[in-house]
Write a structure and sequence with these properties.
Blueprint: H1 12-22, H2 41-59, H3 73-85, H4 87-90, E1 98-100, E2 109-120, E3 126-136, E4 142-144, H5 146-157, E5 160-161, H6 163-178, E6 182-191, H7 192-195, E7 205-213, H8 214-217, H9 219-229
Parallel strand pairs: 2-5
Antiparallel strand pairs: 1-4, 2-3, 3-6, 6-7
Helix pairs in contact: 2-3, 5-6
């Protein structure tokens, strides 16, 4: 039988959870908890999740002794969740260099489409989509490099999410970092919890938006942004 990782007497997940509770912080599926992760925790957490995932596979009546395809699946799945799919929960935000708006730019800026990948927090099924970001900077805004929008979006999306909350988190972070007069975020995505299960409808997409500042107050600006992103492309 596959050798199970030797787990410590006190699970590292319990230690992390205790730190969070003592600090009176939230640790919902789409929260970042990197502040409470100490050196070595993620390696120990990988062992813990792999051991528990092996128990899940056994409860699904999968022969882990003789099935060569699933012999190491528990560890592969644990590693995938911790270092890829849910990475945005466990690591700090990416480093973002901010530049002053030296040229006093105050015209509409649009970034996108940014390809994003997430997982539905209801079924852990993939969410695959695109994000567009519109900005109306002012003379006090901090400008950031084009690639950084994609990195920040990835950091937010790499957690168990629901689409409505994900783009609100992204909008809040960008408002704090860039301090524009206005911000617009639109996301269009396929939800595999509809593709794989339930109604099994492969044609339906979800589109939602968050508008802040001048995009919320100025209908003409909002129409200009929405016409330029052209979701049909």
């Amino acid at each position: 039988m596959t050798a199970k990782p030797k787990l410590p007497s006190v699970a590292v997940s319990a230690e992390i959870r205790d730190r969070i509770k003592k600090a009176k912080h939230r640790f919902h599926a789409n929260d970042n908890i990197s502040t409470f992760i100490e050196p070595g925790d993620l390696d120990a957490l990988l062992d813990e999740v792999a051991g528990k995932m092996e128990g899940v596979l056994e409860s699904l009546v999968i022969d882990l002794d003789s099935d060569h395809n699933t012999r190491d699946t528990a560890r592969r799945v644990a590693k995938m969740y911790l270092t890829e799919v849910f990475r945005g929960r466990y690591v700090p935000p990416p480093s973002v260099t901010e530049f002053p708006n030296a040229a006093y730019l105050n015209e509409l800026m649009i970034v996108g489409p940014i390809t994003v990948r997430s997982a539905c927090s209801h079924h852990f099924c993939p969410i695959m989509g695109r994000v567009w970001i519109g900005l109306m900077p002012n003379e006090h805004s901090n400008l950031i490099g084009l690639s950084k929008y994609a990195r920040l979006a990835e950091w937010i999306m790499c957690r168990p999410q629901i689409q409505e909350e994900a783009i609100m988190q992204l909008a809040e972070m960008l408002m704090n970092k860039v301090t524009p007069d206005g911000l617009a975020v639109v996301m269009e995505a396929d939800h595999f919890c509809m593709h794989w299960r339930g109604v099994k409808d492969t044609g339906t997409k979800m589109i939602n938006s968050v508008m802040r500042g001048s995009f919320l107050k100025n209908p003409a600006l909002r129409r200009e942004f929405l016409s330029l992103i052209n979701l049909k492309n």
